[in-house]
UniProtKB/TrEMBL annotation, chain A:
Keywords: 2Fe-2S, Iron, Iron-sulfur, Metal-binding, Molybdenum, Oxidoreductase. PANTHER family: ALDEHYDE OXIDASE 1-RELATED, XANTHINE DEHYDROGENASE. Its EC number is 1.17.1.4. The gene is xdhB. Its cofactor is [2Fe-2S] cluster; FAD; Mo-molybdopterin; Mo-molybdopterin cytosine dinucleotide. It comes from the Bacteria. The lineage of its organism: Bacteria, Pseudomonadati, Pseudomonadota, Alphaproteobacteria, Rhodobacterales. InterPro entries: Ald_Oxase/Xan_DH_a/b, Ald_Oxase/Xan_DH_a/b_sf, Ald_Oxase/xanthine_DH-like, AldOxase/xan_DH_MoCoBD1, AldOxase/xan_DH_MoCoBD2, AldOxase/xan_DH_Mopterin-bd_sf, Xanthine_DH_Mopterin-bd_su. It comes from Donghicola mangrovi. Residues 17-124 form the Aldehyde oxidase/xanthine dehydrogenase a/b hammerhead domain. SUPFAM superfamilies: CO dehydrogenase molybdoprotein N-domain-like, Molybdenum cofactor-binding domain. This is Xanthine dehydrogenase molybdopterin binding subunit.
TrEMBL record, chain B:
This is Aldehyde dehydrogenase iron-sulfur subunit. It comes from Donghicola mangrovi. Residues 44-120 form the 2Fe-2S ferredoxin-type domain. Pfam families: Fer2, Fer2_2. It comes from the Bacteria. The keyword Flavoprotein does not apply. Keywords: 2Fe-2S, Iron, Iron-sulfur, Metal-binding, Oxidoreductase. Its EC number is 1.2.99.6. NCBIfam families: PRK11433.1. GO terms for molecular function: 2 iron, 2 sulfur cluster binding; carboxylate reductase activity; metal ion binding. InterPro entries: 2Fe-2S-bd, 2Fe-2S-bd_dom_sf, 2Fe-2S_ferredoxin-like_sf, 2Fe-2S_ferredoxin-type, 2Fe2S_fd_BS, Aldehyde_Oxdr_Iron-Sulfur, Beta-grasp_dom_sf, TAT_signal. One of its GO terms (cellular component) is periplasmic space. The keyword Iron-sulfur applies.
Length: 784, 211
């Protein structure tokens, strides 16, 4: 049984030898055509004329498509049909696709796309939060508000009050493999599409609408992506649809791969946020009342912005119980790329907001920020009964009381039954010698006028489930062949997270066979229909359970047959170590499969899973949106140069809760990678638009992604082992997004280092580039 | 740089130079065409030794080495990440030295020896660096991995050859393989999945095994 074992990624040998095939590596049939988009050069306006003569005359050009040439739907929106594939008169951002060039080569298509002569009637562009608020340019009729208690009254009645604002930038996904699609026309108008996408069913749906076909006429296949991070949840639609339409019109295979700069200019990114806050608290830092206002730039189309902004609100509490809280969220429409899903999906932004408040409260009171965090934590979960096997260093619980019960409910009405952060934080603090090192840092700072160190522990509590409840379902298809080899298929997609391997481990466990006998085939909409995006960290939770159901159904059928033939009981049939035992009889799994085949047993089964016990009213902001929470905490230490603002992360220690990990090696990889990406978001990764709405950081030359040298010098990552109290797949927990939020410890450590420079609060915005750190140092010193 | 490596490079260049002679017939035809068209030939025939195998190809002069490998020779193990020389996904070696193949034109490499990830090892016969990456989970999505492995092998060679880096303290002493040296020298290869801890562990393992 390979479940819970640290086996390597299923494609490990292919990855290291260059043999793993991505969309751009698939050999194309002869005559394959290539596409490129002509893009808008202004942020907002009406197209008055579009002369494409030179484009059509350019060498190698086969066809040029505009909105008028599209035979059916002109729509690539994942939500409210507000995102045409090709612009229809009005342009909404710099980079918006206006027309598609179909040519004999990638270069010919790109060259031709630049020859268009487009004239516009330019309109004022709304680029900033201030401009959008002034123009009331937004999605939904007004701000969404979730409240509990009387936040304003409680703040006013408090002994201490702080307020402030934090700006945090967006983030470019920079999946190493850019967006790509390949469409292959089939018999009778059907279409096969290879797409680098997290959401094959949506690609299928959009392509079908664009071709005027039922969904059964389109098959989408995804073997793997070279990174997704949310950027391939909806942003691959345009390429797949354009290729499919061009392939349908020309009868030729069509392929499209964005050049990196085009990719960064055209596609959506993480939502940037401004969060203003006001909090009232007592002498210990215990919050009495708290108010947040979230402003987010959603860009020009709605895409997934509403659930992103909702999730930010749902994480405004992070790990803290707030009796009186008000969260107001403005989803602003701006003339920029349509901001989209990115690992954490708004959660990290909401958490940064409240972590800033905790940091500022501690500064205001002169307390250790960790103490302030701890006094505001939800109460620890109830111990040992309820099927928990792992020993946990739980804080002593107060007697069961109304107060305790109340302290376990989130602002949106979900009871927190699995809170482990008291024990987890204490464990982490001990492992990384937090208290002694904090003292050492203070002493070191006292003797160091130029370099200053800082340290912070930040926790994360992250809600697991799609907040759009119906998405929490998955299907699987499992075949046992007569030679005993097993083929699995499910709706989840592989983007490096190791989903295929985890699911294969589940299957190998059910049949008691080695992983080499189990093969995961490419995700394929013709094998498992109506799948949800591989997103919201849900991949192994949902698909693992669906595969488990299918495998258990097959095993039961096999056991029934094998037992019946031998006058035994199906319950006594054992699948273990590559063998099947029926009473005194023992045979290999391969022999058992052959015997079942010859006994005319169906050796193919589907499996289905839907997450139980969730319900959510996003308008009222009430219900149980999450099946459970995943937890973690990180401690980071940094050093800043107060003359330049430059800094280094000296050490990071992480303790993260992945439940009973399905694969500790893969999970630790997700945690380390999530941390690095989260720290990158809050430190070096800065997106800059100019006053014309042009993205000026559209390549890694100007957009700084963490490199090997940026990783903390000392980096200790451990799993907080223990069963998930909920009945998830082998009691594991989702691990994709939660550790991203651990990068917040770096921002707070930088704040701590800056605070060592003077009396004022640093109020450091993100990304905390060296320029921002230097400004904060000057502000704190009173030089600014 | 140690003399031994210098000699090695020159010797390879020299051998490569003689290889060019073998295809000069094709070249001279091109040269004739050039005089007739003052703007110059748009394409050139080049001879490359790729993974030990001689390959002749005629490419548009503007074709990068990366596109020549991927599009003309169907060696898709070398990846295109940014096409700007910033991400390192396209790293391969030319005459034993690592290059960003997206920043180099194929026509600049007539007679050169190019090694791609496919030449280093195969799934059933891996190079020690490839094995170490598997053993240490030095990747997630795998897209940057061929470039990381190419760079990793070159980094160890460069340190042994005495080529200093930004973090080398003493330019005259023998360079020791340290965590800082490896991190610095690997910083041209972006891993967006953030598998750096495991990548460094894999490289360190190989360095220790070879020590």
């Amino acid at each position: 049984m390979s479940v819970h074992r640290p086996t390597p990624h299923d494609s490990a040998r292919l990855h290291v030898t260059g043999a793993a095939r991505y969309v751009d590596d698939i050999p194309t049939p002869a005559g394959c055509l290539h596409l490129a988009f002509g893009q808008s050069t202004i942020a907002h306006g009406t197209i008055t004329a579009m002369d494409l003569t030179a484009v059509r005359a350019s060498e190698g050009v086969i066809a040029v498509l505009t909105a008028n040439d599209l035979p059916h739907a002109n729509d690539v929106s994942p939500s409210i049909h507000d995102e045409p594939l090709l612009a229809t008169g009005t342009v909404h951002y710099v980079g918006q696709p206006l027309f598609a060039v179909v040519a004999t080569s990638h270069t010919a298509a790109r060259k031709a796309a630049r020859l268009a002569e487009v004239t516009y009637d330019t309109k004022p562009a709304i680029l900033t939060i201030e401009e959008a608020m002034a123009a009331n340019s937004r999605f939904e009729e007004g701000p969404r508000v979730y409240t509990r208690g009387d936040a304003s009254g409680a703040i006013d009645a408090s002994a201490h009050v702080i307020d402030g604002v934090i700006d945090m930038g967006g983030q470019e996904h920079f999946y190493l493999e850019g967006q790509a699609a390949l469409a292959l026309p089939q018999d009778d108008g059907d279409m096969v599409v290879h797409s680098s996408t997290q959401h094959p069913s949506e690609i299928q749906h959009k392509v079908a609408d664009a071709l005027g076909l039922p969904m059964h006429g389109v098959k989408v296949e995804v073997r793997r992506m070279g990174g997704g991070f949310g950027g391939k949840e909806s942003q691959g639609n345009a390429l797949a649809v354009a290729c499919a339409v061009a392939a349908s019109l020309t009868g030729k295979p069509c392929k499209m791969r964005y050049d990196r700069d085009d990719d960064m200019v055209i596609t959506g990114k993480r939502h940037d946020f401004r969060i203003s806050y006001r909090a009232g608290f007592d002498h210990a830092g215990r919050v009495q009342g708290i108010e947040f206002v979230h402003y987010t730039r959603c860009g020009w189309a709605q895409d997934l912005s509403l659930p992103v902004a909702d999730r930010a609100m749902l994480h405004a509490d992070n790990a803290y119980f707030f009796e009186n809280i008000r969260i107001e969220s403005h989803r602003l429409r701006t003339n920029t790329q349509s901001a989209t899903a990115f690992r954490g999906f708004g959660g990290p932004q909401g958490i940064v907001g409240v972590e800033r408040v905790m940091d500022q409260i501690a500064h205001h009171l002169g307390l250790d920020p960790l103490e302030v965090r701890k006094v505001n934590y939800y109460a620890e979960m109830e111990s040992a009964d309820g099927g928990l096997s792992a020993p946990r260093a739980a804080a002593p619980l107060p007697p069961e009381s109304i107060l305790t019960k109340k302290k376990q409910v989130t602002p949106y009405g979900q009871e927190v039954t699995d809170f482990v952060l008291h024990g987890l934080t204490a464990d982490l603090a001990a492992r990384c010698d937090y208290e002694a090192r904090r003292v050492a840092v203070a002493e070191w700072n006292a003797g160091s006028p130029v370099l200053k160190r800082g340290m912070a522990i930040t926790p994360v509590k992250f809600g697991i489930s799609f907040t759009l409840s119906h998405l929490n379902q998955a299907g699987a298809l499992v075949h046992v062949y007569q030679d005993g080899s097993v083929a699995l298929n499910h709706g989840g997609t592989e983007m490096g997270q190791g989903l295929y391997q985890k699911v294969a481990q589940v299957a190998s466990g059910v049949f008691g066979i080695g992983l080499e006998q189990v093969r995961l085939t490419a995700t394929d909409t013709s094998k498992v229909p109506n799948t949800s995006a591989t997103a919201a960290s849900s991949g192994s939770d949902l698909n693992g359970m669906a595969v488990l159901a299918a495998c258990e159904a097959l095993r039961a059928r096999m056991a029934d047959h094998l037992a019946a033939v031998r006058q035994g009981e199906p319950a006594d049939v054992v699948f273990e170590g590559g063998l099947v035992r029926v009473g005194a009889d023992e045979m290999t799994f391969c022999a058992a499969a052959k015997e079942c085949y010859e006994g005319r047993v169906s050796l193919s089964a589907t499996g289905f899973y839907k997450t139980p016990d969730i319900s959510w009213d996003r308008i009222k902001g009430n219900g149980r949106p999450f099946y459970y929470f995943a937890y973690g905490a990180a401690c980071s230490e940094v050093v800043i140069d107060t003359l330049t603002g430059e800094y280094k992360v000296l050490r990071t220690d992480i303790l993260h809760d992945a439940g009973r990990s399905l694969n500790p090696a893969l999970d630790i990889g997700q945690i380390e990678g999530g941390f690095v990406q989260g720290a990158g978001w809050l430190t070096t990764e800065e997106l800059v638009w100019d006053d014309k709405g042009r993205l000026r950081t559209h390549a890694p030359s100007t957009y700084k992604i963490p490199a090997a040298s940026d990783r903390p010098k000392v980096f200790n990552v451990a799993l907080f082992e223990g069963d998930n109290p909920e009945a998830t797949i082998h009691r594991s927990k989702a691990v994709g997004e939660p550790p991203f939020c651990l990068g917040i410890s770096v921002l707070m450590a930088l704040s701590d280092a800056v605070a060592a420079c003077g009396a004022a609060y640093p109020a450091l915005d993100a990304p905390a580039t060296p320029e921002r750190v230097l400004k904060a140092v000057m502000r704190v010193r009173g030089d600014a | 740089m140690s003399p031994a490596i210098n000699f090695e490079l020159r010797r390879r260049t020299f051998i490569a130079g003689t290889a060019v002679a073998a295809v000069t017939v094709g070249m001279s035809r091109k040269a004739a065409a050039q005089t007739a068209a003052p703007v110059g030939a748009e394409s050139t025939t080049v001879f490359l030794t790729v993974n030990g195998e001689g390959r002749e190809l005629t490419v548009d002069n503007r074709t990068t080495l990366l596109d020549a490998l991927r599009e003309h020779l169907q060696l898709t193990g070398t990846k295109k990440g940014c096409d700007h020389g910033q991400c390192g996904a396209c790293t391969c070696t030319v005459n034993g030295t690592r290059v960003n193949s997206c920043l180099s034109l194929a026509v600049m490499h007539d007679g050169d020896e190019v090694e791609t990830i496919e030449g280093i090892g195969a799934p059933d016969a891996m190079d020690p660096m490839q094995t170490a990456f598997v053993e240490n989970d030095g990747f997630q999505c795998g897209y940057c991995t061929p470039g990381q492995i190419q760079s990793a092998r070159a980094v160890l060679d460069e340190i042994r050859a005495g080529i200093p880096s930004h973090v080398t303290d003493d330019l005259t002493a023998e360079i020791t393989i340290t965590d800082a040296e490896i991190r610095e020298r690997m910083s041209g290869n972006i891993c967006r999945c953030g598998a750096y801890a495991n990548i460094l562990a894999a490289i360190t393992q190989v360095a220790e095994d070879q020590a």
